[in-house]
Structures are given as structure tokens and as C-alpha cells.
Amino acid sequence: DIQMTQSPSSLSASVGDRVTITCRASQSITKYLNWYQQKPGKAPEFLIYGASNLQSGVPSRFSGSGSGTEFTLTINNLHPEDFATYYCQHCYRSPWTFGQGTRVE
Amino acid sequence: QVQLQESGPGLVKSSGTLSLTCAVSGGAINSDNWWSWVRQSPGKGLEWIGEVFHFGNTNYNPSLKSRVSISVDGSKNQFSLHLTSVTAADSALYYCARSLALAAPGTYGVRAFDSWGQGTLVTVSS
Question: pLDDT above 90 covers what percent of chain B?
């Protein structure tokens, strides 16, 4: 299985900050990488696919980059509703696996 | 917009079988999408269990393959999960989700979980 490792596990930020979360794959997954946001008591919500493509309706302050084994999710100008946990997930080959999550608080 | 809703017992006895159903509304289950089960527990985070296509083709996580079965019922627009020989380690919040195929530059197409149910908590009791 391809292992996904996120860093940091949690971070403290303030409204207006720029936040960067890193996701590393245990082997190259080229651009087969998705990002999700999860708020307490809610299901994950789909943000980014193919490493850098925003899902429809996702604010442009969210962006993704990277390829191969290292990927980044960036949130510019952090809004109050962005405080949540973020997960990466590869879709290179089954089994699909997720990172352990990064909590933005 | 497609919506998914999980249903099933919230309490399952150890060594028994966990059975859940996901009702799909706002879209046909016999579309060109895979339909997945994902679970979330404090100890293991998000774990993909397996998926089914509307023809009945399945794909399972090897870590659970010997115990899991996922099926689809096109007439009821729903799909189901059966997990046998459960233990406390199977206690989790279980989600059903649609796996949507998307065109993405630099790939041959990706799949992402674009729609999720609200989740249903299953506790395995001894």
C-alpha cells in the first residue's frame, strides 16, 4: 500500500494567515492526489483533485501543488470557516489511502 | 446534487456481521461512478474499505478483503456493506461516498470522493 504522511499534525493560525500543509507519499503518485476538509461532526468535503485542481465551488484562497511524492495545500487569507482538519488522499492505485490529517486551529 | 444516507444497526456483537446500507438520491446509482465505503476511527483515521460499480464489480482494501462484501441494488438505488467477524477494532464512524471520475492535467483521469453521507456510528460490543 502507498502510505501518505502529512505534516504538521496540527498547527495554530489566525484569521488572515497563510497556512501550508505538506503531504508526502511513500512512492511517486505523479499528480494522483486529492485534498479534503473535515469539520467536527461532519463528513469530509472534497477540495482539490489531481494535486492542483479546485473542485467547483471551493474558494480560490485554497490551492494545491506538487507532484511525485511531495504535495502542498495552501490556504491564503485564512477565514474563520477554514479552521478544520485537512486530509490528503492518493488515487494512484487501489487501495486508496489517506494521510492522518492536519488540524488547523 | 447527489445525496447519500447511511442506515443500519449502531451496535453489533463481537464476532457478528456489520451490515449497512447507503441510499442514493438525486442521481442514479447506475451512472459511471464507483460507490465506496470509508470508515473513520480515532486510532486509524480515514480508512477506505472498498467500492462497487453498478455492474456489480467490486474492489476491496486487502486489509479487509477476507471479511468484506459490497453489493449494489439498482432497483432501490442503494448499495450495501457487509463486514463479518467484527471485533472492537471495527468500531468506527462509517461513511458511504461516491467516487467521481475527473479529468486532471498530468494524469489519465483521477477519482475523488466528491459526495459523502453524514456517517453512521457503529460500535462493536463484547
Answer: 87
